[in-house]
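Hi team,

Filling in the usual template for the complex we talked about on Friday. All components are listed, including any nucleic acid strands or ligand strings, so the model treats them as one assembly.

SUBMITTER: L.P.
PURPOSE: interface mapping
COMPONENTS: two
RESIDUES: 508
SEQUENCES:
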Amino acid sequence: MSSYLYYPGCSLKSTGRPYEESMLSVFRALNLNIIELDDWNCCGATAYMSVSELKAFALCARNFALAESQSDKLGNADLVVPCAACYLGLNKAKRYLDEYPDIREKIDTALAAANLSYNNHVRIRHPLDVLCNDLKEEVLTDKVIRPLEGLKVACYYGCQIVRPYADFDDQHNPVVMDKIMHLLGAEVVDWAMKTRCCGGSLTGTVQEVGQRLSYAILKDAVRRGCDVIATACPLCQFNLECYQKQMQRRYGDGPNIPVAYFTQLMGVAFGIPNQQLGLHRSFVPFSYSPQPKEVAGG
Amino acid sequence: MEKWLGWHKIRYESELDKDFPNQIASIPGGDKLFNCIQCGTCSGMCPLSPYMDYTPRQLIAMIRAGFKGDVLSSYTTWLCASCYSCTVECPKEIKLTDIMYAAKRLAIREGVYPKRFPIPVLANEFFKSVENRGRSTESWLLVNLFLKTNPLKALKQIGLGWRLWRSGRLSAKRESVRRRGELQSVLKTLEKEYMVKPKEELVSAGEEDA
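RESULT (copied from the run log):
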């Protein structure tokens, strides 16, 4: 059984709770052992980087040190990071620590003051990467008991999973999520907004501007006749789903389309109950219920 | 008359800060800044450039020329949502997003960012929370943000807050790491050994407006 360490980040403990619930359910269903990193701290996100770069790297480095010391029992130090901002924050810090000796020296000194050390073992993985690349296709398709037949899905990757680093997929036309959705039996829509910015935190800070970006993405999905948008980032999901009512007021023709985490859709196809996937927390209900697969010869 | 003559935009050589481009270029890999060919790919890719006071291409030119005051007090850097479209498409491999960050940090350190603009306030509030507790709590962060920028606007968000609360997606419990001392000693060591002491207003920047 493969084992992974899990780094939730702040969002998956609050607005992104359905992401945590569905991801853990899916990992369990696939027999993957996943353990939360004990005493993890914030990755720094984009906001911390705006105040102090060095401290942002130090925050990440403490997580790396914790991951390495807690991974002894697991055999590998793969840290699964579902939030795109955390994923990039940690990935970027790791690259800077590995590539720039002067930064590394400073961070090592700081870690040593707290009896911590980082030894380059940790690997930063996104669940899309793990679920698509660590498993054989059959492992996924065997689990599908209720194929998502007739469901039109728009896969939305957002920015920070593929930019600036595209470690496990194409930078301009990522396909891992499309592949997973295809294996679940869904119809995947080809569209141009896959990696277009959703506005990030601007949807809350400068709403006139931020919500316009999310609105453009939603409109395109609706225009293409999609039933649901699949996301892989808590902030993207929040922006696209939770502001739909405000968009209605602001633009007069607010879209009304469910926005789910790709792990929630996997869970639905695997026959996991909605409650365990956090689907009851959705603002725009996802009411699709697929039929059980006919068993050959049964 | 002043406006159409555009003379508020004119900078004479004596007003320029010759050291400013080097300050920005001192970030890792930052010297590529000087390779800019002003092609405008960054501005074309940027989903936010129509809303900015200077487009990313203009900002790079201004940095290189030493327009320190105009760059640091501009809204451009704060509107950058860190989507990295410019960075990955730049034909000269200039890390524009990182340059935006460098400008934001300088603006905060020198206290010249747009004061009641919500984005730098959010950055500061987030920074304080993580510095003290190692984690950020979304509900507290949002309440602080609205109180310090525009309390009236907060009223408009009550409906959203209520729905999040009801669906179990917002908690009032303040998050924190268990071993706060451990994290503090990492951050304090960095500060003591390697960091320029920022001006006092850095960490309490939001408060002077409250």
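MY TAKE: Chain B touches chain A through 64 residues (CB under 8 Å). The domain at 2-109 of chain B is CATH 1.10.1060.10 (Fumarate Reductase Iron-sulfur Protein; Chain B, domain 2).

Thanks, L.
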